[in-house]
Amino acid sequence: MRANRQSGPKTQQSDHCHAPVIELEDVSFGYDHQKVIQQLHFQILERDFVGLIGSNGAGKTTLLRMIVGLLKPTEGSIRLFGTPMNRFKDWDRIGYVPQRNAFNPLFPATVKEVVMSGLYGRKGLFRRIAKKDQQKCTDALGALGIEHLRDRKIGQLSGGQQQRVFLARALIHNPELLILDEPTVGIDTETQRMFFQMIQHMHQHHQITFLMVSHDLDMMHAYLGDQAKQVNGKLQFHVRHSHETQDCSEDDLMHTLRHLQSERPFEAMAVKEG
Ligand SMILES: Nc1ncnc2c1ncn2[C@@H]1O[C@H](COP(=O)(O)OP(=O)(O)OP(=O)(O)O)[C@@H](O)[C@H]1O
C-alpha cells in the first residue's frame, strides 16, 4: 500500500492497532430549534468501513457535513486523524462525495476539469496540468467508464454521469478516508453493483477508511452485517474492519482504478450512453 501514507498522531492508546481517523466526542447539533444529533460519541478507525443508515431526516447528511467541516457542532468536538477540527489542514487526505444535487447546466467546467480539481482544489480548475496528473485523470475517468465524456460540460450530463464524475474526482488524489453520501443514487442497478465491488476492493486491499451513507440496505447488510455497532437516535452505524486482509503489493490506489479499467466494468454503461 502507499508507502508514504501516514497515520495521524495516536491520540489515545487503545487495544486496537489502528489509529482513530474520526473521533466524535459527545457531538450534538441542531438547526434553529430542531435537535438533529444528540451526544454522539463514536470513533472510526483506520480501515473501518462504516455504513451509516437511517430514515429520511435522521441526520446522516448533517453528520457528514460536520465531519468535513461544513457545519460546526453545537456541542462536543471532532478530531480528524488525531487533530482537532479547528486545526486540521490535511484535507487532501479526505475524499468527499456529497449527496447529489442537480448541477447548474450553465456551469462552464468540463468533466476533465472537475476531476482534476480533486488534485488541485478550486484554484486549479483552469491551471496547467502536469503529465503524471493527466494520467491519473485518465485512469480515474477510465475506471468509472467516462473517458468519452472528458470534454463535455458537467452541467450537460445526466445525473448518473455527474455522480461518476464526482466519484472520479474524490478518488484521484488517493485519499485515506472516503466519505460518500448516497453515492449511487440515480445510478442504474448494474453500475451500482460495480461501484460496490470497487469500494469493497479498495477497503479490503488498500488502507482506505470508508464512511458511507446509503439507503441500499441489501448491500449494506451484505457487506457490513445486520447488527449495528452503535445506534444514536435514528442513526445506525454498521462497521466492518479490514484488519484481516492483506495489503496489495501495489502502492497506489490507481492500481484499483486500472484493475477495474482492465475489467471494463462500466463499458456497457459507457456504450449505452455514448
Ligand atoms: N439547512 C437546514 N436548515 C434547517 N433544517 C435542516 C437543514 N438541513 C437539514 N435540516 C433538517 O435536519 C434534519 C436532518 O436532515 P439531514 O439532511 O441530515 O437528514 P438525512 O438523514 O441525511 O436525510 P435523507 O435520508 O433524507 O437524506 C431534517 O429534519 C431536515 O429537515
Automatic annotation (TrEMBL):
It holds the Pfam family ABC_tran. Keywords: ATP-binding, Nucleotide-binding, Transport. Residues 22-257 form the ABC transporter domain. InterPro entries: AAA+_ATPase (IPR003593), ABC_transporter-like_ATP-bd (IPR003439), ABC_transporter-like_CS (IPR017871), Metal_Ion_Import_ABC (IPR050153), P-loop_NTPase (IPR027417). It comes from the Bacteria. Belongs to the ABC transporter superfamily. This is Metal ABC transporter ATP-binding protein. It comes from Marinicrinis sediminis. The lineage of its organism: Bacteria, Bacillati, Bacillota, Bacilli, Bacillales.
